[in-house]
Hints:
Layout: H1 2-20, H2 27-45
Protein name: DUF554 domain-containing protein
Pfam families: DUF554
Amino acid sequence: MIGTIFNTAMIFCGSLLGTLFKKGMASKYHDILMQGLGRLRSSLWA
C-alpha cells in the first residue's frame, strides 16, 4: 500500500514540476497534462 501511495505522489509531483517548467512543451501537450491533473485531483479527493 505504501508503494502505491508513494508512486501516486511522485507522479503528481512530477506533473507539477512539468507544469512549472513547460516552456518547451507544445500547447497540445500542455492541455492534455492539465486535463490529466484535473482528473487525478478529482479521483483522489472525491
